[in-house]
């Protein structure tokens, strides 16, 4: 609460600037954080998509319907979706959201996810629950919020789906994945999730929400825990990949 008040006063005292390019914003609207030029430069994830990780599929892989990385690595989730490519403006916005205490960006950043789900017919009616990717309690204390839970809240509200924010637990505080190679990423998160007893997900279809999918290691390990607890289908929706 105190941090939110400080952020609010800072917006009043200092001229509002684009969070991506840092130039002064022309709009005075309270929910505008990015200039039109930066907004238009966001790289969209366009079809055709890999049937596993959801990334754009290059022409040479059309016939297989799956990208080379996913052919080599078995992922435990059934399908992943992302509206944006993790580069440029969207990468900067996610960084501001996660690491610079700008949790109020959650509403704006959830919009491309909602729009993508509608445009590309993610079967939301088929899904029973939405589950945010959990943070370890140590990281949650440091950050004071879980960015995946904020995004999940808006998505759950839009599609009127129950949000289960406490059944998937990250019980091991793994080191950051950023500087690790693909194989190291999978090893780093192995066995780091558990599902609480009597979670009610047996036979249910779930949507796991996070901000970014890189190799898919974290989402795959989380999906494995959910499936071991009886989940039927686990889809993944992230803002970027």
Helix count equals 9
CATH class of the largest domain: Alpha Beta
Strand order of the largest sheet: 1-6-5-2
Major pleated sheet: 4 strands, parallel
How far apart the termini lie comes to: 31 Å
Count of distinct strands: 6
Count of the separate structural domains: 2
SSE order: HHHEHHEHHEHEEHE
Oligomer: single chain
- Overall, the morphology is globular
Low-confidence stretches: none
Beta-strand residue fraction: 5-15%
CATH architecture assignment of the largest domain: 3-Layer(aba) Sandwich
CATH T-level fold name of the largest domain: Rossmann fold
The helix content, as a percent range, equals 25-40%
Radius of gyration: 18 Å
């Amino acid at each position: 609460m105190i941090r939110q008040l400080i952020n609010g006063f800072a917006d009043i005292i200092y001229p509002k600037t684009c969070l991506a390019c840092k130039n002064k914003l022309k709009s005075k609207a309270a929910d505008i954080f990015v200039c039109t030029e930066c907004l238009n430069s966001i790289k969209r994830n366009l079809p055709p998509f890999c049937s596993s990780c959801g990334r754009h599929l290059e022409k040479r892989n059309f016939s297989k319907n799956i990208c080379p990385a996913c052919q080599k690595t078995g992922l435990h989730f059934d399908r992943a979706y992302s509206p944006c490519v993790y580069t440029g403006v969207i990468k900067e916005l996610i960084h501001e959201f996660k690491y610079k205490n700008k949790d109020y960006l959650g509403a704006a950043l959830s919009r491309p996810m909602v729009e993508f789900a509608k445009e590309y017919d993610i079967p939301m009616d088929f899904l029973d629950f939405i589950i945010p990717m959990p943070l370890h309690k140590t990281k949650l204390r440091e950050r004071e919020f879980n960015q995946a839970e904020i995004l999940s809240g808006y998505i759950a509200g839009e599609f009127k789906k129950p949000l289960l924010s406490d059944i998937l637990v990250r019980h091991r505080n793994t080191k950051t994945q950023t500087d690790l190679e693909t194989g190291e990423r999978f090893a780093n998160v192995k066995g780091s999730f558990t599902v609480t007893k009597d979670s009610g997900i047996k036979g249910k279809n779930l949507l796991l929400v996070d901000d970014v999918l890189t190799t898919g290691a974290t989402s795959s390990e989380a999906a494995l825990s959910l499936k071991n607890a009886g989940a039927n289908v686990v889809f993944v929706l992230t803002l970027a990949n």
